[in-house]
Amino acid sequence: MRRPIHLTCSNVLPDPALLNTLSKTTSGMTLLHVDDDVAFRRQVVEQIMTPLKFARIDEAADGNTGWLKYSQRQYHLVITDFDLPGMVGTELIKRMHERNIQQNVIIMTRFDTIVSVKEMYRSSSKVQMISKTTVQDCLSGKNIRPFWEAFARSCLFAKVSTMDPAGSGRTQPT
Question: Considering only CA atoms, which of 129, 133, 73 is closest in space to residue 99?
Answer without folding.
Answer: 73
